[in-house]
Each structure stands twice: as C-alpha cells, then as structure tokens.
Design goal:
single chain, 529 residues, alpha/beta, Rossmann fold, 2 domains
C-alpha cells in the first residue's frame, strides 16, 4: 500500500515534519487489529509556491536524510521494524517514465515567477475584463508576489493552483495510483495556499470526466477517482505579533480575519467538498499561540516554532491507515461527474488535560500506543550517541567494528543532521509560553551524571508526569548492558569494514536495546491501557 500525502502550504510542510519525526523514531502505522501494515510506503507531494518557506526547505532536507537512512538500514525492505522503518518515496521513484525530477516538492514555475497580475495577464485584457478583475481583486492582491505564497488570499490561490492541477506531474500521480493505495491531504483553511488547494485537488481527483488525456493512463485515473481519501483540516492555532487587525505596517495578513476565513471555508466545504472525503480530521488550538512573527513570505517564516497542533495533526494519518478497506467505500453515481464517499466520518483531536505543558500522560492512550515506545527510545538513543558513544568503542556491542567505521556511525552527516532537527523540533514545541499548550515530552539530561532515569518525567510544570512509572534507575551502565545483550542476540558481523552491514546492525542493536530498557525499567501501563 502506498499513502500519497499532499502537504499543501506552510502548514502542510510543518505537519509532514512531525510525521517524519515519528517515523524516524520507529513509530509504525498499524491496522485495526494492531498489526503492522505490510508493504507500506509513503509518497509525500509538497505543494507550495513559496519555495523559500523555512518549513518547506527543512522538511525537504529531512525527507532526503530520512530516505538515505532507510536505505542504509533497511535496503529496499518496507516491512522492517525499527528506526526509519517505513519506506518513503518520491513520485519519480514510483512513476519514473512520467516524472523527471527526483524531488518531494513540485515546482510551479509560472506561479513562482509571477506577480498575480502578470499571472492572469491583466494588462492584455480588454478594458471591460480588466475593470472586472480589478473589482474582484484588490491592488494588494494583484501585486502579490506569488513566489512568497498567496498572502492568506485563497481567491488568488484557487486560480494560481490550477497550474498544478493541469500539470504532467498531477497526471503522473493519478496514473501511478494503484487499487489499494490511499490519499491524504494536509492544509490549513485560515490562510491562502491550503484553503485554496484542498478543495481544488480533492474535487479534481474525484472527477470522472476528461480522464483520458491521450497518454494511455486513463485506467490509473479511474482507480484514483475511487481512492480512499482522508484530509486534515487545520484551523487557527496562532496569532501574529503586533498585527492588531492589520494596523502594523498595513499588513496584508490579518489574524483578526482568521476566524472569518475559517467559517467561510467550513461553510463552503460543507456544501461542496465534504462528500468527497472518507475521513475528515479537524484540529485547532482555541487558546492559540500568541506572537508568531508577522512574515507573509519574504523572510521565509523562519521564526514560527513547531507546535503541538502539527504534532497531533500528524497522528491523523496513523488513524486513517488503521481503517479497514470496507470502511472507506465510495459511490460511483450513474451519470455523475464525481465519485463520492460512502458514510463519511468527521473526527477531531483532544488532550487528556488542558495544562500549559503536556507530557505523555496528557496524550490519549490511543496516541501513546502508536508513539510512546518510539519517542522514548529515539530520545534515549539520541542522548547516548551524542554524549557517550565516543567513549564506548571498546565495549562488546561496538568492538567488533573497525574503529573508524564505528566513529563514522555516530558522527555521520545524515544522522547528525536528523538528530539536530529533532532537537530543534522538540525544543520549539515546548517554547510557546504559559498561555498555550506546550508539548514537553522529555526532561533534561545531564551527560555528567550519566543518568537516564528522569529523561521522561518532564519539568515541574508538567503535572501529569507522575503517571509514567519507574521500576529502577537507568544509568549509563544499564544502557551499555542492554546494547551488549542486543548485539549478542543479533550476532557478529562477518566483515568489520563493511559499512552497509554495520549501519543495519548498529541501528537494529540500538532499537532492540532501547525497547528492552523501556520494557524493563519504565512502567508505561497506565499510559497505553
């Protein structure tokens, strides 16, 4: 099964980042019976005219590093448990004959290189049409530099994004779709790109008319029209610093309009879109995070921190994949132009507590069954490799490797880059202040004390941390012992200089060891049952 994930706009990239972090940690989607889904691969398709958006550039880097790690550890096997276990592909890997570029991001050249007025060729219009266009669009909207996004204006986006809808890449996606695959969309509805892209792409996929473009791919497009579709609808979860309804500097994006835009979008979706979606997931933060830096695009929106809403939103894809096929049926109406979903359902996400700082116990048991072991184990591994592995190269778990190779395993650029991005991600999610919900899953670690015991008990602000039990202290010697035992079970390497084998062996040893520590040293029963 392939899950095609359309990440639309900045919010789409930010939610996708959270998903990839969970998968890197070893979280694996399971079916309705709790079994890992076999032969699963995820195909991200990022759509955003704002090519310098910080969230987009970071998630592209993260995806490429993740894909490299998956290949080194698991080869082409999509079914291995462990870190980086779920296979991730570009559309070019799935459909090499139709897609030229091996990228997760789809460049919309005409959009990204134009002001909106130029895109619609307003200067060549007849006078009547030109006056009508100026009545529909303000001068600010006509002057919008679309390379920086749509400045919160879905009326611009719905016109500009038609370029991708008609593109060879979109046709290649529809042709690549196979029966049994699924499609998931991510976008916000209080801005411009997501609000315009969600209805455009979903309704286009459901189309039954004009499927055959003469390239022999009509069968794939019919299958695609009948696909199970899920969508994450992100509603307001932050405000903009010094925005005050647009008073600061005459800004084009006004947080005072977020709720109005959301209501308008929901009303439109109710009448025109919801019937095409099998599962719709709604999420927002009514408290909101105050003070996101006002940046419509020119500075890449680099100051916007990762957020618990994006983390929770990513969990919707785990839920969507767990649904049985017979729960995601569609209608093929006689004479209809589009296929509709049978018995669509609507879901939202809630926390166990409304504390300012949310620990694992503040998340639902269903969430913890998906991510708890993975997020705990990956953080332990991160601290061990960062702070201690260089001193442990003579230990049994490591001494069979060539020393230079062992050092390369934990200093190598790909894993170092991912760990650094992971550190930034988790630190940002807990840095929104007392007025918002902060996600604080981890406590501080002292490399000098070499004590992992309090790694998951959070700060004093995290009231619910007491629900995670500790069966015994976890010192550095306990970690080394678990690694040695796991290495003995997995067995020795035939060649100490074989980097490919060493990669696979080390991360399998580490995954087994971290999970054994969680099982033997921590009591997580109340969090998952």
């Amino acid at each position: 099964m392939r899950l095609f994930v359309f990440a639309i706009g900045g919010t789409g990239s930010r939610v996708l980042t959270s998903l990839i972090m969970m998968l890197a940690a070893g979280a694996r989607p399971k079916d309705n019976n709790g079994r890992s889904i076999n032969n699963l691969s995820i195909v991200p398709i990022i759509i955003d005219p704002h090519e310098t958006n910080d969230a987009l550039t970071k998630v592209e880097e993260l995806l490429r590093r993740y894909r490299t790690m998956h290949r080194r550890i698991h080869g082409d096997n999509p079914n291995n448990e462990g870190y980086f276990g779920v296979k991730i592909e570009t559309l070019q890997e799935v459909e090499p004959q139709r897609v030229n570029n091996d990228t997760f991001f789809f460049k919309m050249t005409k959009v990204s290189e134009s002001a909106f007025s130029k895109f619609i060729d307003i200067e060549t219009m007849e006078l009547t049409n030109k006056l009508f266009a100026k009545m529909l669009f303000s001068q600010d909207e006509l002057n919008t530099k679309m390379e920086e996004g749509f400045y919160g204006s879905p009326n611009i986006g719905c016109i500009a994004l038609n370029e991708f809808r008609k593109s060879p890449d979109f046709n290649a996606f529809r042709a690549a779709y196979s029966e049994g695959d699924r499609i998931f969309f991510i976008g916000s509805i209080f801005g411009g790109t997501g609000a315009s892209g969600l209805p455009l792409f979903i309704s286009s996929i459901r189309e039954l008319v004009n499927l055959d473009n003469g390239d022999g791919a009509a069968d794939g497009r019919v299958n695609c029209a009948e696909a199970p579709i899920g969508a994450l609808i992100v509603m307001p979860y932050f405000s903009i610093a010094n925005n005050n309804g647009g008073a600061a500097g005459g800004t084009q994006i006004r947080d005072s309009e977020f709720i109005v835009k959301t209501k308008s979008a929901l009303r439109y979706y109710h009448s025109n879109l919801n019937r095409y979606i099998n599962r719709t997931y709604y999420i927002s933060d009514p408290k909101g995070t105050a003070g996101f830096t006002y940046d419509p695009g020119g500075e890449g929106q680099r100051e916007n921190k990762a957020h618990i809403v994006e983390f929770a939103g990513a969990l919707a894809m785990f839920d969507f994949l767990a649904i049985n096929d017979d729960g995601l049926n569609v209608n093929n109406p006689d004479g209809g132009e589009r296929i509709t979903a049978v018995a669509p359902l609507y879901k939202s996400y809630g926390l166990n507590t409304d504390d300012a700082y949310i620990h694992f116990a503040g998340l639902s048991r269903q969430t913890n069954r998906v991510i708890l072991n993975a997020m705990m184990g990956f953080y332990m591994l991160r601290q061990f490799m960062k702070n201690h592995m260089g001193d442990m190269l003579t230990k049994p778990f490591a001494n069979q490797y060539d020393k230079n190779l062992t050092e390369a395993l934990y200093r190598e650029d790909e894993i170092t880059g991912i760990f650094n991005m992971f550190d930034e991600w988790i630190s940002q999610m807990k840095a929104h202040g007392n007025g918002a919900n902060n996600l604080q899953l981890y406590g501080d670690y002292s490399a000098q004390d070499k004590d992992f015991s309090n790694l998951f008990f959070g700060s004093p602000e995290t009231k619910t941390s007491r629900l995670l039990g500790l069966k015994g202290s976890v010192k550095i010697n306990d970690v080394v012992k678990a690694l040695n035992e796991a290495a003995e079970i997995i067995g020795n390497m035939d060649s100490p200089n074989n980097g490919e084998v060493a990669y696979a062996r080390w991360y399998n040893v580490a995954y087994r060891a971290m999970n054994n520590i969680i099982d033997n040293k921590f009591d997580i029963t109340t969090l998952i049952q």
